[in-house]
UniProtKB/TrEMBL annotation:
Lipoprotein recorded as keyword: no
Keyword Coiled coil appears in the UniProt entry: yes
Protein name as it appears in the record: MobV family relaxase
Transmembrane parts of this sequence: none
Coiled-coil parts of chain: 238-272
Family to which this protein belongs: Belongs to the plasmid mobilization pre family.
Xref: NCBIfam families: MobV
Organism taxonomic ancestry: Bacteria, Bacillati, Bacillota, Clostridia, Lachnospirales
Key words, A-Z: Coiled coil
Family annotation (Gene3D superfamilies): 3.30.930.30
Domain of life the protein comes from: Bacteria
Length: 324
């Protein structure tokens, strides 16, 4: 089973003295980074900005606060930093232009909810093991107040940020999985890799049952040998798949009840595709397909004779077994 790929968004608040430190780190103003041995100074030239800083972070944030007429306190949060990246598996094999496109898509997500004028810098670091972007902005609300609490809010609002980030990114990168806890709906997102694994295992199981169905007096030994060989590869993958699927039992068991309404909904899909609900309809269709694949696998497994299954589990096939 392929490794999961997660889009990652981390949000942090900064008040005073830390602002100079994050600027020095983000803009690579230090000669050495003893605290971060992953930084390779010979690759610093590969870093780039999607938003260039106009000046020093502190001077620019003070200018913005004055421009918007924000009231401040000594302990006011003045900068929010979004660290945006993905798991290493996502970046594997991607061209520089594809990596840049990922971070550009993430920048567009932030700009949906934060005035682009409040962004101090968006810099992509390519000089560490995994590409990532540091995006720093001044937490000014739509009505012109300096209020990080309103923007980041409580645990529910932070979950909202994670949900919206995933929804935005998965439109362009459908293999990305939701990296945090399920949102408040109580229904877990089923990872795309499980759909692919179900389809792959279904093809394998079908190949095995076809072999056994086409077995006769003349080819019994050859077909049985081949079926056992295929089953020995199939079993570990199937067990791994079943373990993964159990995590989503609650979601999968609820899918059957969706099927009747799905038939009605798909009749109107061409009209609804332009509406926001279309993505949830597509999700239900995908989920229902996974349930069908899973049930088909169970049915296919039931068609395989027990003695053949036992041979595959033992991992050997004796001459007397073939003769039988």
């Amino acid at each position: 089973m392929q490794k999961a790929q997660y889009g990652i968004l981390r949000l942090a608040k900064y008040k005073g003295p830390e602002i100079s430190n994050i600027e020095a780190h983000n803009e690579r103003k230090k000669g050495k980074y003893a605290s971060n041995p992953d930084i390779d100074n010979s690759r610093k030239n590969l870093n780039y900005h999607l938003v260039e800083p106009v000046g020093k972070y502190r001077a620019e944030l003070n200018r913005l606060i004055e421009e918007y007429g924000c009231r401040t306190r000594k302990d006011s949060v003045r900068v929010i930093e979004a660290l945006i990246t993905a798991t290493p598996e996502f970046f594997k094999g991607k061209k520089k232009s594809e990596v840049r496109a990922y971070f550009q898509t993430a920048l567009e997500f932030i700009e949906k909810y934060q005035d682009s004028k409040t962004i101090l810098s968006a810099v992509v670091h390519m000089d560490e093991k995994t590409p990532h972007m540091h995006l720093s902005f001044v937490p000014i609300t739509q009505d012109g107040r300096l209020c990080a609490k309103e923007i980041l809010g409580n645990k529910k609002k932070l979950t909202w940020w994670q949900d919206e980030f995933w929804k935005h990114m998965v439109e362009k990168y459908p293999d990305l999985e939701r990296g945090e806890a399920a949102s408040m709906t109580g229904r877990e997102h089923i990872p795309p890799r499980l759909f692919k694994e179900a389809a792959h295992l279904t093809r394998q199981a079908k190949q095995i049952t076809d072999l056994l169905e086409n077995t006769n007096f003349f080819n019994a030994g050859k077909n049985t040998d081949k079926a056992v060989e295929l089953l020995q590869k199939f079993f570990p993958a199937m067990e791994n798949f079943q373990t993964q699927v159990r995590k989503y039992d609650k979601t999968i068991s609820s899918l059957k009840s969706d099927n009747v309404s799905l038939k009605r909904q798909t009749q109107d899909l061409s009209r609804q595709v332009k509406e926001a609900t279309s993505s949830s309809i597509r999700k239900k269709m995908n989920d229902a397909r996974l349930r069908a694949d899973y049930e088909n696998l169970q049915n296919l497994m039931n068609c395989i004779p027990p003695e053949i299954l036992e041979l595959a589990k033992r991992g050997q096939l004796t001459h007397s077994d073939r003769e039988r």
